[in-house]
Amino acid sequence: MSLFSADNLSINFGGIKAVDGVTFDVAKGEVFTIIGPNGAGKTTIFNLMSRIYEPSGGKLVFDGRDITNVAPHRIAALGIARTFQNLELFDSSTVLENLLLGRHVHRRTNLVENFLFLPKARRAEIEDRRAAEEVIDLFGLAPHAETPIGSLSYGLRKIVELARALCIRPRLLMLDEPSSGLGAEETETMARWIGDLRRRMGLAVVMIEHDMSLVNAVSDRVVALNQGRIIAEGSAAAVQNDPEVIRAYLGG
Ligand SMILES: Nc1ncnc2c1ncn2[C@@H]1O[C@H](COP(=O)(O)OP(=O)(O)O)[C@@H](O)[C@H]1O
Ligand SMILES: [Mg+2]
How much distance in Å is there from the Cα of 85 to the middle of ligand 1? Predict the structure, then answer.
């Protein structure tokens, strides 16, 4: 059974069909990859899945539940996490602080509860810390826990962003160009982490990526997107060799 599905998903921006009738599903434990030239609509699909954008048509289902109309701030609590094409971390805050902020979106207590039900708020805080420390251990980030993001290498920042997404203990992880800004060696490290996380946590991953070494290393299934539509689907090799995909890249 699929963990996540998008059915006939569409959105227009001023008459341009940025995503145009896209249908796919992702199984538990699977790495599903979206490739395609710049402007194909890949990040827009993520923004639709995160409910940041309102689809003009179609349906989103997560874990058997229709999430097409779920509020964006509820998405993380359902177990869907993401990273961004351009890092979205707080540079002057430490690694630990960034991870705790990542947890915050998951909190069930609100500000009023924090005052009225102190024990509940305190339990949530302890749980936040525990989750953050677990992830710090997993990624071997302990030596950097108190380091401000701004003084880390770009490669480490990308790992911290991945770590932050995992702090909510997601079941579906969305990665928008995890290799962007990384050198060849750092990209290999990223590939190892993605493979590891899938194996150890049974995470489903939806990844947008242009580095074919990373696509080949971790993908179970690949789709190619062009002008908002899926033009090929299959193994990484099959999709890269598809004539229409090659044309789309040359045309772009
Ligand atoms: N908020 C927006 N408003 C208007 N146009 C947008 C918006 N977001 C994306 N687009 C347009 O949608 C198309 C797809 O963009 P995007 O999803 O970012 O492409 P990709 O991630 O595949 O490079 C582009 O033409 C882009 O300009
Ligand atoms: Mg993009």
Answer: 13
75 lies in the same domain as 174: yes
Indicate whether 117 and 221 sit together in one domain: no
Residue 84 falls inside a structural domain: no
- CA neighbor of 7 nearest in space, from 187, 191, 230: 230
Same domain, 174 and 252: yes
Final residue of a structural domain among 135, 168, 201: 168
Q: Is 139 helix (H, G, I), strand (E, B) or coil?
A: coil
The DSSP H or E segment spanning 21 is strand 16-27
How much is the pTM? 0.93
Q: What CATH number is given to the structural domain containing 12?
A: 3.40.50.300
Residue with tokens 């401000």, as numbered in its chain: 148
Q: State if residue 18 touches ligand 1 by the CB under 6 angstroms criterion.
A: yes
Single-letter amino acid code for the residue at 55: P
Predicted confidence pLDDT, tens digits, the chain (252 residues): 799 999 999 999 998 999 999 999 999 999 999 999 999 999 999 999 999 999 999 999 999 999 999 998 899 989 999 998 888 888 999 999 999 988 876 665 566 666 666 777 788 888 889 999 999 999 999 999 999 999 999 999 999 999 999 999 999 999 999 999 999 999 999 999 999 999 988 899 999 999 999 999 999 999 999 999 999 999 999 999 999 999 999 885
Residue-number span of the structural domain to which 229 is assigned? 1-79+170-252
* φ/ψ of residue 146, rounded to 5: -100, 10
The domain tally of the chain equals 2
Pocket test for ligand 1, best of 10, 19, 44, 210 (most atoms within 8 A of CB): 44
